[in-house]
Amino acid sequence: MTNRTISAILSAFLFLYINPGSIAQTASQEDPLLTVGGKPVSRDEFVYLIGKGSNSDANTPGLSREEFEENLDLFINYKLKVREAEALGLDETTEFKREFASFKESLKSPFLIKNSLEDGELRKAYSRMQEVIRASHILFQFPPNASSEDSLIVLKMALKIKQEIQNGGDINALAVEYSDDPSAKINKGDLGYFTALQMVQPFEDAAFTLQPGQVSDPVLTSFGYHIIKVQERQPNPGQVQVSHILVRVDETNPNSENQARRKISDIYTEIQKPTTLWEDIVKNYSEDPATSKKGGLLPWFSVGNMIPEFEMAAFSLTEIGEVSPPVKTRYGYHILRLENKKPIDSFEEMEDMIRSRILRDSRSTMIQSQVLAIQKARYGFKENEANVEKLRASLNTKKKNEFRPEITALGMGASNLFTLKGKAYSTEDMLIYMETDEVSPKTKGGTFDIWYDRFAGELLAQIEEEDLEANNKEYSMLLKEYRDGILLFTLMNEEVWQKGIQDSIGQRAYYEQNIRDYQWGERVNAFIVKVLDINKLEQAKSRLQGNAYSESLVNEFEEFYKSNDPLAYQTQSGLIEIADDPILSKADLSKSFQEIEADGHLHLVVVGAKVPPGPMAFEETRGPVIRDYQEYLDEQLIQSLRKKYPIKVNKSVKEEAFIALNQ
């Protein structure tokens, strides 16, 4: 059984009418609502399950006494079945354990610290994506194998240039002179437009804190120190699709620049003529082999995906079909035409992409560091710094198989590493973990820091999961709901559903005992022809009128119309129950042929012999019998369980539940 929730499962058995108001959580927690065979069932569980179908509208009435009692009775039946499933050991089967473990693994994710931090980063990134920034920068790289003195010299240089910019210096001119970014000689430090997740995180964080005209302090990234000046901030224009014409410039030919400029100018003039077809111009003149045969069409792109000059020209076009003036890029000269545009996608549409990119950049390390810090604070992590430092000094260059001998030589086999929730963990605990843990090859030759962090991290994660079940009410309720739902489904499948389908002797016995419930009303042999094409009415009447009902009449008419006019008619024939048929219930059954108007169509009816009311044959009603037999088995199961497991209801807690569901 997979992809099943208790909400779906219970709908077949539980809570026929649920429409309470908001649920109070203030009632007594000590006493159970009821006991099932001595096993307590909490008031909170009952209120929670009914509350899942609640309507938060304050104007919607809560449960009446009658509805409350009905739902309590159904809840008791549900808990009886779960109790029986446990008694039968269904919660100890391999299949149950596998499915429950799988659900538990998927359920815990939204409740973990990591998920809430990730979600915060996702939302922050998407919020930033609503804007695009145009910025310039100057990069100051460190020399190879830089010392701390070297780093300080680079930082002082960055601060000096920042001051020069603030004193009125042109960042673009200064970028050409000082920037270690190789592209600065061409773009003068102008990065064009970008949005979230298109720059390394420290650079992005700094840029999004600046307003147009502001200059950052030196920003440290893996590339070096950056001085950033934001030129513009604008709403994100979303995505565009353009087609283009390209005229290349041959850098080895000194005349190529002028030739390309004249050619693109002539093409632009030609495009302005009303009789000119864009596709023809692209095919004849564009020098982009990838697009010239398909009208110059490029894939959709957003800000930051194209070179700045091309991108700015594309996003400056506002009307579909609008053509840009010639644009110079490092590839040559372009003319662009806007083909389509659309706004930025919704958060839900972009969530997977954003998550993937965040987990690939430095944010993932930052998130993990924050998770560990929160876990350590929450669960009382206290490190024995002296022991850890001593082990680090001795083991940080050792391989995995050298740890135990080295620790033994140090006499630190039982030394305390840290305490967690008041429990001490020693070097021996870490060694056992190392010896039983399956690790990637790159970690097998790792250091003390790798193993220590891994050991502590997994313990913290384990304790967080245990803490969820013990202290997070929503999580524990969902977990119990699904657990009991699996047991309920398994029991019902074995004792009711499959038994009802497979027990042919029981089915027939039930049918014979309840034959009065499987009776035909008055029936008649009839042939009903629904005329879909009114022009074919007379053709049908001529074949039916004046003829008695017979199988040969039906067969001959159906063979005729299916061969000649298959769309002209719809037919129904056989022994039909009169009262349940919308056509025959209107018919004068004393006439052998008649025309009846219904549902906007004319129906031709040929009536034969009537058959009086009588019992249905077992084969005729096997489906309804199986359904009713399953209901009977369910009722019998409940009766037997109520005898097997006595029910005791705490009246005062029951009243608390009623009040909670009506507040």
From TrEMBL:
Signal peptide limits: 1-23
GO MF: peptidyl-prolyl cis-trans isomerase activity
SUPFAM superfamilies xref list: FKBP-like (SSF54534)
TM segment ranges: none
InterPro entries for this protein: PPIase_dom_sf, PPIase_PpiC, PrsA_foldase
Residue ranges annotated for the PpiC domain, each copy included: 130-232, 237-340
Keyword annotations of the record: Isomerase, Rotamase, Signal
PROSITE patterns in the record: PPIC_PPIASE_2
PANTHER family, per the entry: PEPTIDYL-PROLYL CIS-TRANS ISOMERASE HP_0175-RELATED, PEPTIDYLPROLYL ISOMERASE
Name of the protein in question: Peptidyl-prolyl cis-trans isomerase SurA
